[in-house]
Amino acid sequence: MTPKQLKFASEYIKTGNATKSAIEAGYSKNTAAEIGKENLKKPYIKAYINEKLSEIESHKIMDAKEALQLLTRIARAEETEIVTVGTPDGLQQAEQPPSIKDRLVAVKELLRRYSISDIDKLQIKKLSAEIRVIETKANVAERLENRDNEQLDEILDKLTDEVLSNGSKSASNE
C-alpha cells in the first residue's frame, strides 16, 4: 500500500467518507470522489480498513473474562457506584458498595458458569433465605422503631423461624 493509500484508509476509518478521505490523503479535489470509490474497491485497502475497524470494535465489547471479573468485583463489594442522597443540606453524591441483593445476583450469575453440586445448591438456597430474613428484619425494625426491643426481638425470631423452615421445606422438596 502506498503512503497516500494508507493515509486514505486511516482517514476513511475516522470519517467514513471516501471523498473527504481522498482529499485529506492528498488526492486532487477534482478526482477525489472517483479515487475514493476506486480505493474502496481495492482488496488490500478494503482488507486493511476492515481489519482496523474490527480491532476498534473488539475493544468496545466486553469479553467473557472481563465480564466475569466485573461480576466477581461486584460480588466481593469491590465495585462502588455513585448515588444521590438526600441530606438536611440538600442532595449530595456518595459512593456506595453494591447491596446484598446485587451481590447475590452477581454470585448467581458467576455460579451459572460453573457446575454446582446439589449440596452447593442447597447452601445457596439457605444463604438466599438468610438474606431474605435480614432484609425482613430491617424492614420490620424500621416499622417498629418506637416499640419495645423485646417485643421486636420476639417478632423477628418468629419471622426468622418461619422463613428458614419454609426455605428448608422447599429445598427438601426439590
UniProtKB/TrEMBL annotation:
<protein>
    <recommendedName>
        <fullName>Terminase</fullName>
    </recommendedName>
</protein>
<keyword id="KW-0231">Viral genome packaging</keyword>
<dbReference type="InterPro" id="IPR038713">
    <property type="entry name" value="Terminase_Gp1_N_sf"/>
</dbReference>
<keyword id="KW-1188">Viral release from host cell</keyword>
<dbReference type="InterPro" id="IPR052404">
    <property type="entry name" value="SPP1-like_terminase"/>
</dbReference>
<dbReference type="Pfam" id="PF03592">
    <property type="entry name" value="Terminase_2"/>
</dbReference>
<dbReference type="GO" id="GO:0051276">
    <property type="term" value="P:chromosome organization"/>
</dbReference>
<dbReference type="InterPro" id="IPR005335">
    <property type="entry name" value="Terminase_ssu"/>
</dbReference>
